[in-house]
Amino acid sequence: xxxxxxxxxxxxxxxxxxxxxxTQELLLTLQTEVSGLLTYQYTQQQETRSGADWxxxxxxxxxxxxxxxxxxxxxxxxYRYQMLSHHGAEEGTFxxxxxxxxxxxxxxxxxxxVFYNGWPEGTFEEGTHWAPPAEWNACPNRKxxxxxxxxxxxxxxxxxxxxxxxxxxxxxxTGKPVAERFRIQKYLSAAVPWSYALGFPAYTKGCRGAxxxxxxxxxxxxxxxxxxxxxxxxxxxxxxxRRLVAPRGDSDRA
Length: 254
Prior knowledge:
The chain is an alpha+beta fold and 254 residues long.
């Protein structure tokens, strides 16, 4: 939620809180506070070749590792993720194509986008920070953003979505005017707060009008089946069938 507040505050002051600033602060915080999380941040040259801003490695040498390659994009003043139009490493491609091409689910390497969001309450609907008609995916009880007691809209200050889903949504807009492309509602409808990237909370409680119930196991990329398509549709889980070795240096970086 802190990232949302910073972006919102900067917007009110006429300032820009860009991807680089958000990424550096967030990665430093997570690396400090999350035990066992391995992070590799790409240089600009490496980002051009890989399509990613950083990697997260999750696991251990005993059970194996999964690698999440992340590209971050921020919301602009016109409420679009404008830089999804960034060109890729190959002619005629986009950056999200480069990201996807550098990943391989069979090797437990997955591509994701993280969207940095923040705007004042009431921007899209009075009394809420949410951006209707975007679909709310953050409730294990399938409640709306008005009824959900698990998170609030500002937890989407860092929202995560699979790169394959970003490509599907973005490529479907190629024939539209630039002003209509990359609108945030479309992508928010397929995203979740990044704290949900590996699944829902252990128990679903706190919603208005809902009984507490044990949550279903989550999948990388979001609670709905369509989010998991790009993860591993055959196995339905992200673990590699053969163990990967965690990074020891930068010699293998794209």
